[in-house]
């Protein structure tokens, strides 16, 4: 299972290098990384069926293959609100996906 966590952490490495703190857990035998968006929607990266999936509020699921996919999934957590964790706001702005 540590290899599955490692694959997820590898994809979010840019965020970790920018100081993002995540929560790791195992649900139903599957590795889960909580990206701690503090937005209207949560964003959990789950290793399932040999894929990394972003699972969010309202049953939304996106397949994650790259850092860009992570940014898109996190950005979609807004759901019409304008609040996120301060760290995610910094990351999104640095990556050109801010709220301007």
Unreliable parts = none
Mean pLDDT: 89
Gross morphology is: globular
Summarize the amount of helix as a percent range.
Answer: 25-40%
Number of strands: 5
- Report the structural category: alpha+beta
State which percent range the strand residues make up: 25-35%
Radius of gyration of CA atoms, rounded to a whole number: 13 Å
Question: First CA to last CA: what distance?
Answer: 39 Å
Biggest sheet overview: 5 strands, antiparallel
What are the secondary-structure elements, in order, as H or E?
HHEEEEEHH
3D architecture notes:
This protein has helices at residues 2-11, 13-17, 67-75, 86-94; strands spanning 23-27, 30-34, 43-48, 51-56, 61-64. It has 100 residues and is an alpha+beta fold. Strand 2 and strand 3 form a beta hairpin. The longest helix is centred in the N-terminal third of the chain and has 10 residues, at 2-11.
Q: Can you tag this structure with a few keywords?
A:
100 residues, globular, alpha+beta, 5-stranded antiparallel sheet, 4 helices, single chain, 5 strands
């Amino acid at each position: 299972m540590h290899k599955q966590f490692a694959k997820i952490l590898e994809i979010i490495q840019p965020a970790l290098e920018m100081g993002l703190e995540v929560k790791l857990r195992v649900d139903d035998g599957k590795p889960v990384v909580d990206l701690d968006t503090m937005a209207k929607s949560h964003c959990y990266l789950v290793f399932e069926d040999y894929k990394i999936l972003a699972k969010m509020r309202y049953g939304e699921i996106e397949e994650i293959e790259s850092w860009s996919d992570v940014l898109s999934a996190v950005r979609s957590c807004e759901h019409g609100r304008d609040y996120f964790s301060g760290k995610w706001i910094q990351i999104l702005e640095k990556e050109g996906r801010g709220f301007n």
